Amino acid sequence: MLYCQPDFQLFQGENMLSIVGGGSAYGARLVTDQPYRQGDVIYRISGHRVTDRATYQTIQIGPDTHIEELGVLAYLNHSCQPNTIVNVTNLTVIAARDIAAGEELTFFYPSTEWEMDRPFICLCGAPQCVRLVAGAKYLSIDTLSRYFINAHIREMVFAALAETVSLDRRR
Protein backbone atom coordinates (compact mmCIF):
# COMPACT_ATOMS: atom_id res chain seq x y z
CA MET A 1 0.00 0.00 0.00
CA LEU A 2 1.32 3.43 -0.88
CA TYR A 3 1.02 6.16 1.69
CA CYS A 4 1.42 9.83 0.93
CA GLN A 5 0.24 13.18 2.07
CA PRO A 6 -3.14 13.92 0.49
CA ASP A 7 -2.12 17.49 -0.31
CA PHE A 8 1.02 16.79 -2.36
CA GLN A 9 0.98 18.88 -5.54
CA LEU A 10 3.21 18.86 -8.59
CA PHE A 11 3.61 21.70 -11.05
CA GLN A 12 4.96 21.09 -14.54
CA GLY A 13 4.83 24.23 -16.60
CA GLU A 14 1.29 25.49 -16.15
CA ASN A 15 -0.06 22.03 -15.31
CA MET A 16 -0.87 21.11 -11.72
CA LEU A 17 -1.46 17.57 -10.49
CA SER A 18 -2.11 16.23 -6.99
CA ILE A 19 -1.34 12.88 -5.45
CA VAL A 20 -4.29 11.96 -3.27
CA GLY A 21 -3.80 9.20 -0.70
CA GLY A 22 -6.43 6.69 0.35
CA GLY A 23 -10.16 6.90 -0.31
CA SER A 24 -9.85 4.58 -3.29
CA ALA A 25 -9.65 0.84 -3.91
CA TYR A 26 -6.21 1.53 -5.38
CA GLY A 27 -4.66 3.55 -2.55
CA ALA A 28 -2.98 6.74 -3.72
CA ARG A 29 -4.02 8.20 -7.05
CA LEU A 30 -3.11 11.03 -9.39
CA VAL A 31 -5.73 13.77 -9.70
CA THR A 32 -5.77 16.83 -11.95
CA ASP A 33 -6.36 20.23 -10.41
CA GLN A 34 -7.43 21.76 -13.71
CA PRO A 35 -9.58 20.75 -16.68
CA TYR A 36 -8.10 19.38 -19.90
CA ARG A 37 -9.49 19.12 -23.42
CA GLN A 38 -9.10 15.94 -25.44
CA GLY A 39 -5.61 15.92 -26.98
CA ASP A 40 -4.02 18.24 -24.40
CA VAL A 41 -0.59 17.22 -23.11
CA ILE A 42 -1.02 16.76 -19.37
CA TYR A 43 2.50 15.68 -18.51
CA ARG A 44 5.88 15.25 -20.21
CA ILE A 45 7.74 12.22 -18.92
CA SER A 46 11.29 13.11 -17.89
CA GLY A 47 13.86 12.32 -15.22
CA HIS A 48 13.42 8.57 -15.69
CA ARG A 49 16.02 5.84 -16.02
CA VAL A 50 16.03 3.21 -18.80
CA THR A 51 16.23 -0.46 -17.77
CA ASP A 52 15.76 -3.89 -19.34
CA ARG A 53 13.96 -5.17 -16.23
CA ALA A 54 10.18 -4.96 -15.89
CA THR A 55 8.73 -4.26 -12.46
CA TYR A 56 5.34 -3.11 -11.24
CA GLN A 57 6.74 0.44 -11.15
CA THR A 58 8.09 0.59 -14.72
CA ILE A 59 6.50 1.53 -18.02
CA GLN A 60 7.46 -0.52 -21.06
CA ILE A 61 8.71 1.63 -23.95
CA GLY A 62 10.02 -1.11 -26.27
CA PRO A 63 10.02 -4.90 -26.59
CA ASP A 64 12.83 -5.23 -24.03
CA THR A 65 13.04 -1.68 -22.70
CA HIS A 66 11.35 -0.10 -19.70
CA ILE A 67 11.62 3.18 -17.83
CA GLU A 68 11.68 3.55 -14.06
CA GLU A 69 11.94 6.30 -11.47
CA LEU A 70 8.74 7.77 -12.87
CA GLY A 71 7.97 10.12 -10.01
CA VAL A 72 4.35 11.23 -10.06
CA LEU A 73 3.45 8.68 -12.76
CA ALA A 74 3.78 5.94 -10.14
CA TYR A 75 0.31 7.13 -9.04
CA LEU A 76 -1.28 6.92 -12.51
CA ASN A 77 -3.65 3.98 -12.00
CA HIS A 78 -5.17 1.58 -14.52
CA SER A 79 -8.69 1.81 -15.91
CA CYS A 80 -10.43 -0.07 -18.70
CA GLN A 81 -12.14 3.24 -19.45
CA PRO A 82 -9.07 5.51 -19.23
CA ASN A 83 -9.08 9.27 -19.54
CA THR A 84 -5.41 9.52 -20.57
CA ILE A 85 -3.04 7.98 -23.08
CA VAL A 86 0.59 7.30 -22.20
CA ASN A 87 2.44 7.77 -25.49
CA VAL A 88 5.90 6.28 -25.09
CA THR A 89 7.06 7.44 -28.53
CA ASN A 90 7.11 11.08 -27.44
CA LEU A 91 7.01 10.41 -23.66
CA THR A 92 3.80 12.28 -22.95
CA VAL A 93 0.57 11.74 -21.04
CA ILE A 94 -2.29 13.05 -23.18
CA ALA A 95 -5.98 13.60 -22.41
CA ALA A 96 -7.95 10.84 -24.19
CA ARG A 97 -11.17 12.80 -23.65
CA ASP A 98 -12.19 16.01 -21.91
CA ILE A 99 -11.21 15.77 -18.24
CA ALA A 100 -12.72 17.87 -15.44
CA ALA A 101 -10.69 19.37 -12.60
CA GLY A 102 -10.67 16.96 -9.66
CA GLU A 103 -10.81 13.79 -11.79
CA GLU A 104 -8.45 10.93 -11.18
CA LEU A 105 -6.11 10.37 -14.13
CA THR A 106 -5.95 6.79 -15.42
CA PHE A 107 -4.57 4.87 -18.38
CA PHE A 108 -4.96 1.40 -19.88
CA TYR A 109 -1.89 -0.53 -18.67
CA PRO A 110 -1.83 -3.01 -21.59
CA SER A 111 -1.33 -0.01 -23.91
CA THR A 112 2.32 -0.04 -22.77
CA GLU A 113 2.78 -3.46 -21.15
CA TRP A 114 3.15 -6.76 -23.04
CA GLU A 115 3.30 -8.89 -19.89
CA MET A 116 2.71 -7.41 -16.45
CA ASP A 117 5.22 -8.04 -13.68
CA ARG A 118 2.30 -8.23 -11.21
CA PRO A 119 -1.01 -9.13 -12.88
CA PHE A 120 -4.09 -8.07 -10.94
CA ILE A 121 -7.87 -8.22 -10.94
CA CYS A 122 -9.28 -4.94 -12.25
CA LEU A 123 -11.86 -3.18 -10.10
CA CYS A 124 -12.54 -0.24 -12.44
CA GLY A 125 -16.18 -1.20 -13.01
CA ALA A 126 -16.17 -0.13 -16.67
CA PRO A 127 -18.69 -1.96 -18.89
CA GLN A 128 -15.83 -3.25 -21.08
CA CYS A 129 -13.57 -4.17 -18.12
CA VAL A 130 -10.97 -6.81 -19.03
CA ARG A 131 -11.11 -8.19 -15.43
CA LEU A 132 -7.57 -9.64 -15.37
CA VAL A 133 -4.87 -7.10 -16.20
CA ALA A 134 -1.89 -9.23 -17.19
CA GLY A 135 -0.65 -7.36 -20.27
CA ALA A 136 -1.50 -7.04 -23.95
CA LYS A 137 -0.15 -10.55 -24.60
CA TYR A 138 -3.25 -11.99 -22.91
CA LEU A 139 -5.91 -9.85 -24.61
CA SER A 140 -7.71 -10.44 -27.89
CA ILE A 141 -7.15 -8.23 -30.89
CA ASP A 142 -10.81 -7.24 -30.59
CA THR A 143 -10.23 -5.98 -27.04
CA LEU A 144 -6.98 -4.20 -27.91
CA SER A 145 -8.61 -2.51 -30.92
CA ARG A 146 -10.78 -0.47 -28.54
CA TYR A 147 -7.77 1.35 -27.09
CA PHE A 148 -4.78 3.45 -28.04
CA ILE A 149 -1.93 0.93 -28.15
CA ASN A 150 1.72 1.99 -28.37
CA ALA A 151 3.77 0.98 -31.42
CA HIS A 152 5.96 -1.56 -29.59
CA ILE A 153 2.87 -3.39 -28.31
CA ARG A 154 1.29 -3.42 -31.79
CA GLU A 155 4.53 -4.87 -33.18
CA MET A 156 4.58 -7.53 -30.47
CA VAL A 157 0.94 -8.44 -31.21
CA PHE A 158 1.73 -8.81 -34.93
CA ALA A 159 4.82 -10.92 -34.14
CA ALA A 160 2.75 -13.20 -31.88
CA LEU A 161 0.10 -13.55 -34.61
CA ALA A 162 2.76 -14.37 -37.21
CA GLU A 163 4.19 -17.00 -34.86
CA THR A 164 0.73 -18.54 -34.40
CA VAL A 165 0.11 -18.63 -38.16
CA SER A 166 3.55 -20.16 -38.72
CA LEU A 167 2.87 -22.88 -36.14
CA ASP A 168 -0.55 -23.60 -37.69
CA ARG A 169 1.01 -24.05 -41.14
CA ARG A 170 3.51 -26.59 -39.80
CA ARG A 171 0.75 -28.90 -38.57
Provide tags for this entry:
three-stranded antiparallel β-sheet, disordered N terminus, 171 residues, 13 strands, alpha+beta, 2 helices, Beta-clip-like
Structure description:
- With 171 residues, this protein is of the alpha+beta class.
- It contains two helices and 13 strands.
- The protein has a three-stranded antiparallel sheet, with no helix packed on it. The protein has a three-stranded antiparallel sheet with strand order 4-10-9, with no helix packed on it. It has a three-stranded antiparallel sheet with strand order 5-7-6.
- Strand 2 and strand 3 (29-32) form a beta hairpin.
- Mean pLDDT is 88; it is low at 1-9.
Name of the top-level CATH class: Mainly Beta
The structural domain count equals 1
Tally of strands: 13
Query: What is the first-to-last residue Cα distance?
Result: 48 Å
Strand order of the largest sheet: 1-2-3
CATH level 4 superfamily: SET domain
Which radius of gyration do the C-alpha atoms yield? 17 Å
Mean pLDDT: 88
The secondary-structure element order is EEEEEEEEEEEEEHH
Helix content: 10-25%
* CATH architectural arrangement: Beta Complex
Figure out the total of helices. 2
